[in-house]
Amino acid sequence: MSTVEKPRSKRLSKAERRAETTEQILDAAEYLFSRHGLYGVTLKDVAKRVGVHHTLLNYYFDDKQKLFDAVFARRAAVTSERRMKVLNDYDKATGGKPTVEGALHAFLDTDLDLYIEGGEGWKNYAALSAQVANTPEWGAKMMDQHFDPVVLRLIGLLKRALPDSAEEDIFWGYHFVTGALMLTLARTGRIDKLSGGLCQSGDYAAVKQRMARFMAAGFHAICAERRSERSG
Amino acid sequence: MSTVEKPRSKRLSKAERRAETTEQILDAAEYLFSRHGLYGVTLKDVAKRVGVHHTLLNYYFDDKQKLFDAVFARRAAVTSERRMKVLNDYDKATGGKPTVEGALHAFLDTDLDLYIEGGEGWKNYAALSAQVANTPEWGAKMMDQHFDPVVLRLIGLLKRALPDSAEEDIFWGYHFVTGALMLTLARTGRIDKLSGGLCQSGDYAAVKQRMARFMAAGFHAICAERRSERSG
DNA sequence: TTCTTATTTCACTATCTAGCGAGTTAATGA
DNA sequence: TCATTAACTCGCTAGATAGTGAAATAAGAA
């Protein structure tokens, strides 16, 4: 948890300076929140990491909760819109006839690519969102707020890909998908130890390679059964 | 978050009294930790809920971290041993020829039954373990410490059920399973809102009905593909 | 009873916490 | 150039925090 000393350059306009400082604060907060959670981090911890007085965080973000929200919102908007776009494209490309696996690839691979290519900041955000997702009360509300549209878009595609299935099955299937995804993003290191180093927590590519196919088969299994229960 | 006033009965031996107080403290801590996490709860919060002076918690558990560990360990031991026993029984009952779905049913249904039948305390523990599972650093270590044996027992069965598959695929499959399970245990209420009330976070029975089948199909999908890649 | 031990509260400390308001420095724009 | 505004630091406060050690209380044993 050592301080990252970026030389705070001198010749910048106020607007540039403000933007840069804001980003630095968000990055530092993101790093720390992703590791210790909202309550496990103090404003002083964050300020120290930026190399700035702690009251500056109040100046920029009013209070701790608003800082946390800003950290989460910054990248949530990006991933949400990005996936929405890809789902729309996929829908068009298949002429309104999506498959389960195709829709899941669009949804999951798009997101995983972001964490693969996005650098350290995106990986920290990923771990943070995993914690938020499993936090009752305010955590779930944050997820609702930022991701309901794109998730419902995915679910719309899945319903069309499985027209005879019960709606509950689709929702529970999505629940399994997102649970698995969130644990992936958490990068806890558990799978590394469990597998004796064969698998690695941070290996999003390995997950990308398997996840959509795995989950698609799951959907077909629980939806097919429901279909046969009805007809039989 | 109102205080639960159990009348602290008078005529008990010291040993009984100690056991009872210990349980009350663990229950209160479990309740609060499951909702606000380790850092979101103070010893005073817990003490208030039990109706006891906050320094009594130091007397019983030395410090906050040890209290947290005790909360987690209490039920982790129960669920771990219980599942281990059921997996052993299943292994014997199938004459050493397990199926993926059978092993998953033994592993998952046994656990879900505990949360269905176990009352409020078990549900709180479940939510707590979901948070621990997605917490890097110490969270993953706690999971390793308590669950490695039973998880490796399950994985052993899965390997035998899928003898030609790559080991990594089994481990990643397990990773998906546990991610989905943990989100279920978190009971965040997200699925309720998302589905417009059609599904409910606390409906472990609905999950039990679908999960093993869903995941088994997933395993077969990623392992089958790997097999055909090799042979083809 | 009385001595001993376990349980529980109490008073206190050292440290940390978020945040306010005034002061300082530096950029901006008239 | 100079007044204004923005960016940032400093000193401070009021309250919370975990934990210590001594005292009070109750239970158990003699």
From TrEMBL, chains A, B:
Domain HTH tetR-type: 19-79
Signal peptide start-end: none
Species of provenance: Hephaestia caeni
UniProt GO molecular function: DNA-binding transcription factor activity; transcription cis-regulatory region binding
Descriptive protein name: TetR family transcriptional regulator
Keywords of the record: DNA-binding, Transcription, Transcription regulation
Residue spans binding DNA: 42-61
Superkingdom of this protein's organism: Bacteria
